[in-house]
């Protein structure tokens, strides 16, 4: 009986695998033309000053709507874009659209601090990356300090002299940096101080359990305290309930982001939010 079960499991696994490979290939093929066909667009999720409840920034989040595949979430296609190198063109396109939209946002609310853009580690390995993003920012009439580049903690862990240099060059040009998904990638405190970081984003995984889960409460508390003592700003990601906001405010977390405040918005809706900001 155990043997049969094993065999069934194997077949099931195989089916799943071939389906995934097929899906992967389909995504890869369609993604190649996605920019050209105008299928990619950006949503913007507001970041709130927890004390004043004002929107201080937006994070750009890419969206892909394909005729055959429907809406494909970034968690599905970013990895494929990275593995195939498509992320280089895609990343430049995202940067450009985000800059253009940020100009619109600033026209409505001149006090907006920055636009946060997620950048993949593969983009940093492109030798032209620093020059390319600088060109895009200048072409759009923005300053590097208008841009916060979000890199994941995993990226920091792939430490090399080369990616550190790219980050330091960008930092010297005036770009801001945040570490995304902090706490999930085993980043060592040593790497943390080596990189030119401005902001730490506490991963949703820790925010989820607040206030019931004492471990998550203590971890969030420690991350906020650590960020403060190293002079980083701190953003809590994935706030869904008022109780989480209350707690984060009580431990002096600066900035909050999450469905409790707002889901990611179209540019039109983001501009509406700014009208009453
Ligand atoms: P991330 O940068 O950590 O972005 C936060 C993700 O959590 C977003 O998912 C956002 O919609 C979602 N989120 C925000 N608040 C809440 C909440 O309160 N509850 C829940 N359940 N979710 C919340 P999204 O847009 O699907 O993006 C997923 C990931 O894909 C991003 O995680 C980022 O790593 C990557 N990604 C998105 N856009 C880009 C991009 O333009 N470039 C690159 N390289 N990666 C991107
Ligand atoms: Mg992010
Ligand atoms: Mg994150
Ligand atoms: Mg996250």
Automatic annotation (TrEMBL):
Record-given protein name: GGDEF domain-containing protein
Organism of this sequence: Halarcobacter ebronensis
Boundaries of every EAL domain copy: 24-277
Record GO terms (molecular function): catalytic activity
A single BP term in Gene Ontology: regulation of DNA-templated transcription
Signal sequence bounds: none
Keywords for this protein: Membrane, Transmembrane, Transmembrane helix
């Amino acid at each position: 009986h155990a043997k049969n079960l094993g065999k069934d499991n194997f077949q099931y696994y195989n089916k799943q695998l071939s389906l995934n490979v097929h899906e992967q290939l389909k995504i890869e093929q369609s993604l190649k033309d996605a920019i050209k066909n105008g299928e990619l667009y950006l949503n913007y999720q507001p970041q709130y000053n927890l004390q004043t409840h004002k929107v201080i920034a937006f994070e750009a989040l890419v969206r892909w709507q394909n005729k055959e595949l429907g809406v494909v979430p970034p968690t599905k296609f970013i990895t494929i874009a990275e593995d195939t190198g498509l992320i280089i063109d895609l990343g430049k396109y995202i940067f450009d659209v985000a800059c253009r939209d940020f100009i619109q946002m600033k026209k409505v609310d001149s006090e907006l601090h920055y636009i946060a853009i997620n950048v993949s580690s593969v983009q940093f390995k492109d030798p032209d990356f620093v020059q390319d993003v600088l060109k895009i920012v200048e072409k759009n009439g923005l300053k590097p300090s208008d841009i916060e580049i979000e890199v994941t903690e995993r990226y920091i862990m792939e430490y090399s002299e080369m990616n550190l240099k790219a980050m330091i060059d960008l930092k010297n040009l005036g770009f801001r940096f945040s570490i995304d998904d902090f706490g999930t990638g085993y980043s060592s405190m040593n790497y943390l101080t080596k990189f030119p970081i401005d902001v730490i984003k506490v991963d949703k995984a820790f925010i989820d359990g607040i206030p019931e889960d004492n471990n998550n409460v203590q971890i969030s508390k420690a991350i906020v305290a650590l960020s403060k003592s190293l002079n980083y700003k701190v953003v809590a990601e994935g706030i869904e309930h008022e109780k989480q906001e209350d707690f984060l405010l009580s431990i002096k977390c600066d900035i909050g982001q999450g469905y409790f405040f707002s889901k990611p918005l179209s540019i039109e809706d983001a501009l509406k939010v700014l009208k009453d900001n």
